[in-house]
Specification:
This protein is α/β, with parallel strands linked by helices. It folds into two domains: about 90 residues, Translation factors (Elongation Factor Tu (Ef-tu), domain 3, Beta Barrel); about 160 residues, Rossmann fold, CATH 3.40.50. The strands form three sheets. A seven-stranded antiparallel sheet has the order 6-1-2-5-4-3-7.
Length: about 300
C-alpha cells in the first residue's frame, strides 16, 4: 500500500505537472503561455478550452485555446490579468510547472458549410477568434475578421490573422489603430453595403456580443457566440456555468461554449458574471497585501 506522503509526492512530481515552455506579454494586460501537455494537445480543436490550476491552492481557471501542436505536444493560452488568480498565473515563467492542465473541454466550433463568414473578436476575444477564424477558412469558407480593442497597444495577433484571413478589419475605441469606433460599426457597414454573410461568429465582452446579436438578428444572419461564464469543474456536474439559451438551461462547459447568439439571455448572463464581484475584490486586496509583504521581506533580507 502506498502511504499518504508517498502518494502526495507522486501526485506533485514533475511527471504529473505541466511545464511552461515559453511565456510572453502580448499586451500590457495580456499574457501568452505555451504549455507542454501532450495528452491534451492530441485532440484539440478550435473553440475548445482548458482549465489551468497553478498550484494546490490555486483557483481553476478556464481558458479557451489560442493554439496547439499535436506533434510537439503543446497548447497555448492567452489570458488577461484581471483578478488575483490571473495575476498570480502571470508571475509564472518559462521553466515553471503548472499543477493542472485539463482538456480539451467543450464542443469545438462547427466551421463546415458556414458560407461567407465574419469572425469578430473584441479585446481578449482576439485570442479565441484567431484559431476559430483559421478553422472557418480551412473548412473552405470565405472568412473576414473584425478585431477591436480600446487602443492600439491592446491589439495582438494582427500579422497572424492577416496571413490566412481573406480580409482583416481593425478598429479601436480611440482611433489609435484602424477605424475609430466599435466592431459593431464595421459589421453594420458590411451589412449595409449588401455583403452576403452566411455566418457571424463573435467572442469578447458580453455587451459587445449582445449588440452584435441584435444587429444580426435584425438582418436574419446566423450568429454564434463563444461565451465565458463563471465555471468550476468544467464537466457539467456543478452547474456554475449555466446559461439560459432559447428558454432552456444549458451548461457552457459541456453544451458550449458556442451558442446561438440570438437565443442567449444576455441580461441574465451578465448579471451572473457580476455575482461575485465583492469576493473578487477581497481576493485581489488579499493578493496585493501578500505581494507587499513579500516585497518588504525581500527588502529586509537585502538590508541584513
Amino acid at each position: 500500500m502506498v502511504d499518504k506522503k508517498s502518494l502526495n509526492k507522486l501526485l506533485l512530481s514533475d511527471e504529473r505537472m505541466y511545464p511552461i515552455i515559453d511565456r510572453k506579454e502580448m499586451t500590457p494586460e495580456s499574457i501568452w503561455l505555451k504549455i507542454q501537455a501532450p495528452e491534451v494537445a492530441k485532440t484539440c480543436k478550435a473553440g475548445q478550452f482548458v482549465i489551468l490550476r497553478s498550484n494546490e491552492k490555486g483557483e481553476r481557471i478556464p481558458l479557451t485555446l489560442a493554439d496547439w501542436n499535436q506533434e510537439e505536444g503543446w497548447v497555448s493560452v492567452i489570458f488577461q490579468k484581471v483578478g488575483a488568480s490571473t495575476y498570480e498565473l502571470a508571475e509564472y515563467k518559462a521553466g515553471d510547472n503548472l499543477l493542472d492542465c485539463v482538456g480539451p473541454l467543450g464542443i469545438p466550433t462547427h466551421s463546415e458549410n458556414a458560407g461567407n463568414t465574419v469572425v469578430i473578436g473584441g479585446g481578449l476575444g482576439i485570442a479565441i477568434a484567431t484559431p476559430v477564424a483559421r478553422a472557418y477558412k480551412q473548412a473552405g469558407n470565405h472568412t473576414e475578421v473584425i478585431i477591436g480593442a480600446r487602443k492600439a497597444e491592446l491589439l495582438f495577433n494582427v500579422e497572424e490573422i492577416e496571413s490566412f484571413a481573406d480580409k482583416l478589419h481593425i478598429c479601436t475605441d480611440d482611433g489609435s489603430a484602424g477605424r475609430k469606433g466599435f466592431v459593431t460599426g464595421v459589421l453594420q457597414d458590411m451589412i449595409d453595403s449588401g455583403k452576403d454573410i452566411g455566418t457571424v461568429f463573435c467572442v469578447g465582452p458580453p455587451i459587445m456580443m449582445m449588440f452584435v446579436a441584435k444587429i444580426t438578428e435584425a438582418n436574419n444572419i446566423k450568429t454564434i457566440a463563444s461565451i465565458n461564464t463563471i465555471m468550476l469543474d468544467g464537466t457539467g456536474m456543478c452547474g456554475a456555468c449555466r446559461v439560459t439559451v432559447g428558454g432552456e438551461t444549458k451548461f457552457a462547459c459541456v453544451d458550449g461554449p458556442d451558442f446561438d447568439a440570438h437565443e442567449i439571455d444576455w441580461e441574465e448572463m451578465m448579471a451572473r458574471l457580476s455575482a461575485y464581484k465583492e469576493e473578487e475584490r477581497e481576493a485581489m486586496f488579499d493578493y496585493r497585501e501578500q505581494e507587499k509583504e513579500c516585497q518588504n521581506n525581500k527588502k529586509g533580507e537585502v538590508n541584513e
